[in-house]
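Pinned message: reference record for Aldose 1-epimerase
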Amino acid sequence: MAKVSLLLFSLFIIVASAIINGSAAVEKVGIYELKKGDLSVKFTNWGATIVSVFLPDKYGKMGDIVLGYDSVNDYKNDTSYIGSIVGRVANRIGGAQFTLNGVHYKLIPNEGKNMLHGGPIGFSDVVWKVNKYKKDGYSPSIVFAYDSYDGEEGFPGALRVTVTYTLYPGNRLTVRMKAKALNKATPVNLAQHTYWNLGNHNSGDILSEQVQIFASHYTPVDSQLIPTGKFAAVKGTPYDFLKPHTVGSRINKLENGYDINYVIDGVDGKLKKAAVVKDKKSGRVMELFTNQAGVQFYTANSLKDVKGKDGYVYEPHGALCLETQAFPDSVNHPNFPSTIVYPGKEYKHVMVFKFSISS
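Predicted structure (tokens):
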């Protein structure tokens, strides 16, 4: 998924929004690290982004299993949402518009006539405040916060957002995203957009990685990747990962690769297992749990000649994303679960990544 890079304008907006919110100060951008057992994770408050995830492989050799960059400035110029939190509404909104409570809202398109991941300057392109930072103890954690102003990228109402990253024993990384609508009803759909390669960020493509997605249905899309509003069974299609398959086993049946929303089986607001990824060569295993109804499976189809960490160049299918979220374009499909958050109510999105080793 690509975005428009508008760094200078972005910085102007950040300063302007700080003034609107009563402060002319811009939060300093930095790198923060959490460690627990064999797991080490680094973050930056630019986009509340995961910068690195270090884990041992089955031979005990440490490796970084997420794509990224060598400096914070590189993240400011990123065009692929690498590692960041995306919003106010993740994924696509058809026509960059919707109607809520009788009011028609026109948003800022950034993918043709549509909006992707919150617009030209979404939550991935702003500086988040570091509310808390606990480096050690039973559960090291960091809390990022961002106040989105009324009218930002065209969305109604002010929104207070927090993202908490926590490490727990057993090589578990938990992501808790919360949002409160302060004065108007507004759509909210946050997503964590890390690019995973369990073989190491510089190990080539992920076509040999084995994936299982616990979803019997997906939401078909049109030529612009906007959902049609229908649901389709995965059985008999290249989208069927109910049983484990390698990513490359059927990817050639798709035009570019995977970029589709799955309807997770049995999700009722409680934590459910959404997916499992295994890398046979390294032995690393990643299990993903969430309380969200959907998960976007994306095989980095748009990556091309992206200079990443240590000068390694990322290419298409160099990683995979599993973005738990509400369904794309829900604001324009009444039959999809609602993404509207009303004042006095709170949006809550939980992801748990559990890492282990298999022989």
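Pinned by admin. Summary line: Residues 42 and 274 are 24 Å apart (CA to CA).
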